[in-house]
Each structure stands twice: as C-alpha cells, then as structure tokens.
Amino acid sequence: MPRSKEVSQRMRSESRAKILASAKKLFASRGYFSCKISDIAHEADMSQGNVYWYFASKEALLKAVLTEGFNALEEMTAEAAAHPGPSLERLSYLIDRTMDLYDVQAEFMTILGFLMSHGGTTLLGELGFDMMEVGSRYHGNLIPLFEQARSEKIVADIEINLLIMFYFGFFNGLMLTYGAEWSDLPKDHIRNAALRLLGCQTEIK
Fold first, then answer.
1. Which pTM does this prediction carry?
2. In this structure, what are the phi and psi dihedrals at residue 45, rounded to the nearest 5 degrees?
C-alpha cells in the first residue's frame, strides 16, 4: 500500500531532524572542521547519499544548525517579552526560559563558541549570518521588558541596551566557558547572580 502524502512528509521531516541532530552532536564534540559528511551519516545511521538528499554540503548543514539555534533564541526572547506581570516576575520568567533554552541548545552554543574562536563574525558573515542583525532581533525583543524593570526600579538606572548586553554576556560567557559543566551548575544561584548583575537587590527562591 503506497504511503500517504502526510506519512511521507513526516518521514522526510524526521530524517532531516535526525541528520541535523547528528551534525549538531558531532560539530559540538569534534569541531566543525574535523567532521566529514561520512561521519554524520554514520552517526545518523544513514547513507551519505541520504544526507546529501537533504543537505547539499557540510556547510549547508552548519547553516541549518545555526539557523535553528538563532531562531530558538529569538523565539524564546519574544515569548519572554510577551509574558505579563510586574517586571520582577517577568525577569524571573526570562531567566528561567533562558536557562531552559541553554539546556536544550548547549550543543549549539558550543558550536557557536568554536566558530567565534575560528574566524568570528567574519566567518559567520561568510556563512550568510549578519551577527549585528541576528543580535538586534533577540536584543530588541527585550527592550520593553527592561524599560519596565528600570521604571519600576528593579534594575540599575543605566542605559537599557547596556543592561541587555550585560544579561546576554553573563549567560553566553557561562555557556561558552563552562559549557561542559552547565547542567551541573546550581540554577538558583545562576538566577540570583543574573539579577544582581542587573542591579536587582531582590533574590528569588
């Protein structure tokens, strides 16, 4: 009995996701330049031809991995920005969602850190990613939240963009420097350290 269009589409989506997950795992553990399509095919338990059916090259795979990670970050900040309530509650929600995202996207952050140390924004630009534009999207999502927090005197009375830079610098620095230990770090201490960095004197249990 022939497969339905829906079943075939689902199988294609599952195969593509499996290839992406395998590539992300290997790019994070071995480094992008040390991986071959044959390695990714073996990890995904597929033929090289099947990998090439979905992705024309290793670079195309890397672009897909990065796009997925950047989109997840933008979606998370948009969701956090839409969360209602007083600013302290919203900041706590943002921090929890950030930690949840980094739990899921630890491999992406490792890959991004590797690329930043092997070519930086120039390399990412060659891959088609304008990091100023990418950063402005998720950065911009949080401006209203931080403006509310500053007006309610929850965070330091300094320039909003600087506060947001501090925020992402804190989490990105932890992930890029201590990514292997991230899952073992005490999340309540991370949450309160982030709040103190922003000038908040209230701890959240």
1. 0.86
2. 60, 45
